[in-house]
Design goal:
Number of helices: 14
Order of helices and strands: HHEHHEHEHEHEHEHEHEHEHHH
Number of strands: 9
Distance between the termini: 39 Å
Helix content: 25-40%
Shape: globular
Radius of gyration: 19 Å
Structural class: alpha/beta
Strand content: 5-15%
């Protein structure tokens, strides 16, 4: 077993990629003005349902010291008025936000519980614009009220480990998605970068059953191939791969094989395609790559099982040149901590450079229609398929 994966990874404060930022988005202690300062967009209930199966609500333009502090201190936030305003303007209906422990020097369980508490507080204080999602009906309520629904997700299970009763605890606190592993191995299975590809452990099989019993989505996004295939077989309910690409198009570990994609679909599950560098071997993903991977996923899974999980927010980085200066340190920090993935380098953006900002979902819809997708199929991909999956797992 990988000791780092089990005990936490030192130096987490240097890990400022979005996969780590999710742990620090959870408070209203700093930088948030009164909810009334943001006007809800007119016609917020119009248009398609748009659900980001893995994303965020953050402002990446907040100063670097605060970004760094947010990684390990739940009293520091990168959620602000602009981030919420942009989420509303984008047409986003609901989003899975990563909270709690992913990696770093924090005590995993304690940090995760604190993160949930501050997210709950954020949603209470921002109830004019945000709503907590526990069921599919909450997504529809967010849509009808012109708000953004937020559902809680984990991208690691170190905070649970062998204490499987904690699954019950977190389910009771409103966690709706639990990803079995991050990139390294943990007590439940091997991640996508674990060299042995050993699959789901006996404890992992018990955990999947416990997740099923709690009606929590079993997410295999960062898993190794064998772990994913084992989980598909072990789960009594459909599972998901909330943010990934297609390995048949781009042969990188973070992307999923056709066997994995097909297995998820055959069991009635959901696959979300991300907007990440792993979509292109050059490391420079573009909108055309996103469309190509969605097309392939639809060909393998069928149009009822594919959606989006961008692995990013909707607020654009204002100064890309300045951002480049930080990339080398960020990627080096992830590699040193043992949580990086093949395909990320100092010159690779963690997003598709021409598919970002508040227009990203509408631009994607236009590109899919230009590819020949019907309006009905596009609506399924933007959110309809995830909504159907949510009804299956969480209930109506």
């Amino acid at each position: 077993m990988n000791d780092q994966a089990e005990t936490g990874i030192a130096g987490g404060a240097a890990l400022s990629r979005r996969a780590m930022l999710g742990a620090g988005l959870a408070t209203t202690a700093l930088g948030l003005s009164a909810a009334s300062a943001i006007a809800a967009p007119s016609g917020g209930a119009d248009g398609p349902i748009i659900i980001n199966a893995l994303g965020g609500i953050e402002n990446p333009n907040i100063d670097a010291p605060r970004q760094t502090a947010a990684l390990s201190d739940t009293t520091v936030t990168t959620v602000d008025d602009r981030a919420i305003r942009d989420a509303l303007a984008s047409g986003l209906t609901a989003v899975n936000v990563t909270l709690g422990y992913v990696a770093g020097p924090m005590e995993p369980f304690e940090y995760t519980v604190q993160s949930i508490a501050v997210w709950d507080r954020l949603l209470r204080e921002r109830s004019v614009h945000l709503v907590k999602v526990n069921t599919a009906a909450d997504i529809l309520r967010a849509k009808s009220e012109g708000k953004v629904g937020v559902f809680y997700g984990f991208q690691n299970t170190v905070q649970i480990g062998d204490k499987l009763d904690r699954i019950d605890t977190f389910g009771g606190l409103g966690v709706g998605v639990i990803q079995l592993t991050y990139n390294p191995a943990n007590a439940w299975g091997d991640g996508s970068m674990a060299p042995l590809n050993r699959g789901l452990t006996p404890l992992g099989r018990e955990a999947v059953a416990r997740l099923n019993a709690n009606r929590i989505m079993v997410d295999l996004s960062h898993s190794g191939e064998r772990t994913c295939l084992d989980a598909i077989a072990a789960s009594a309910r459909p599972i998901s791969i909330n943010h990934t690409g297609c390995r048949a198009l781009t042969d990188l570990p973070r992307n999923k094989s056709d066997a994995e994609l097909r297995g998820v679909a055959q069991k009635g599950g959901f696959v979300g395609v991300y907007f990440m560098p792993y979509l292109n071997l050059s490391g420079h993903a573009h909108a055309e790559d996103v469309v190509a991977h969605i097309q392939h996923a639809v060909n393998v899974c069928g149009e009822d099982h594919v959606g989006i999980g961008t692995d990013g927010g909707v607020t654009s980085i204002d100064d890309l040149e300045a951002y480049k200066a930080h990339l080398a340190a960020e990627i080096a920090g992830r590699a040193k901590a043992g949580i990086g993935a093949k395909g990320e380098r100092a010159d690779t953006y963690p997003f598709a450079v021409d598919l970002r900002g508040v227009e990203q979902f509408h631009k994607l819809a236009g590109l899919l229609k230009a590819r020949g997708f019907s309006s009905a199929r596009v609506d399924k991909i933007l959110g309809g398929n995830f909504l159907a999956f949510a009804r299956e797992i969480w209930g109506a």
